[in-house]
Amino acid sequence: MANSEALRVYAAEDALEKSSPTRALSMADATAWITTIAENEDSDPPALVRQKMSSDLLGLAFSDEWCIAVRKAKPTQLLLLHELAHLACANKGHGAEFQQQLVEYVRKYVSITHAAELAQLLKLNQCRAASGKHRPESWGYPTRMPSSLLTRQGLRPLLRNRFLHLLNPETFHRDL
Ligand SMILES: [Zn+2]
Q1: Centre of ligand 1 from the C-alpha of residue 147, in Å
Q2: Which structural domain range is residue 32 located in?
Q3: Residue 26 C-alpha to ligand 1 middle, in angstroms?
Q4: How far is the CA of 153 from the centre of ligand 1 (A)?
Q5: How many domains does the chain have?
Q6: What confidence tens digit (pLDDT) does each residue in 11-25 have?
Q7: What pTM was estimated for this model as a whole?
Q8: Which residue from 1, 31, 134, 141 has the fewest beta carbons nearer than 10 Å?
Q9: Helix, strand, or coil here: 69?
């Protein structure tokens, strides 16, 4: 189920959560939060449910039922935005459309700093994959790390994590 594009997205998200964690919300708070976001995006608020699923998954989006299912009781904002981005995208994969939507949601509903970091992580991973299919320039985000990020203490461990991932590609899955 998880192709290399999905694994790159997961790796970038994991690195972001290590460097700059997003908030974990109770189910009630998460429901209120995604409802507010959906209304702001002029879409119907999806239902949020907790559901048993395979241990390598944290969440699933069901566009037919317009529902987001999460495995754990306290989903992070990043996980919720990931599933919301799936609902928003016609294309069901983790390609350029999905990644752009996710970074946009993170920018609007978490912070510009988080979004810049995530965009950078996704691009770095894409450079490594050298697919050339989804060029970062087409995303509409700065191609250079903003100078404000260069002095952030989180950057160095973030890069170290990335290289650990290079050494251990099988750690890319979503198991926490
Ligand atoms: Zn996904």
Answers
A1: 30
A2: 4-171
A3: 21
A4: 29
A5: 1
A6: 999 999 999 999 999
A7: 0.70
A8: 1
A9: strand
